[in-house]
Amino acid sequence: MTRLLGLMAALVLAVPVAAAELGDDGLHKTDWMRETFKDLRDDLAEAEAEDKRLMLIVEQRGCIYCTRMHEEVFPRPAIADYIRENFFVVQINLHGDTEVTDFDGESLSEKAAARKWGLLFTPSILFLPEEVPEGQSAAEAAVAMMPGAFEAGTTLDLLTWVNEKRYALDTDEDFQRYHARKIAERAAEKQD
What we know:
Blueprint: H1 2-13, E1 21-22, E2 28-29, E3 33-34, H2 40-49, E4 53-59, H3 64-73, H4 77-86, E5 87-93, E6 99-101, E7 107-109, H5 110-116, E8 124-127, H6 138-141, E9 144-147, H7 152-163, H8 175-191
């Protein structure tokens, strides 16, 4: 069964095409990341104008898990295309000094914002709702957070779960149950 799931995931998600390049700050850069002034309220408005979801990806120089995501997971066509089509991605440097304006109006460095949001590990991905209640920080408003590196199937399922707003449905299917159901569906499709 495990072998079948592994084979199925490889076929569904395809092979990575190319890894992201490193920028001068030592962080991976992709074509789906946006260069912004890091005023999260403006970034959210721009994401909404493009009918996309705002995604904050917090990374650091030398992070082996960030490298793994950028070399093995994000380049897969199904994932890269899904991000490009559905998400407005802003990169935050865990140790950076660039100013970030949080949703609550506080302006602080990237590293201070990461501490404020309680982020200790990289990569960490915060997914924001279409509207953030006044006075909330990014961490308080986030509808989901991906803490660390995950396999391609889990990553794509989380992106889909967030994009389809499944967190807001009045059901007992949280992300873990959704992900388990998607794994079973993919396995059943392979058996047919």
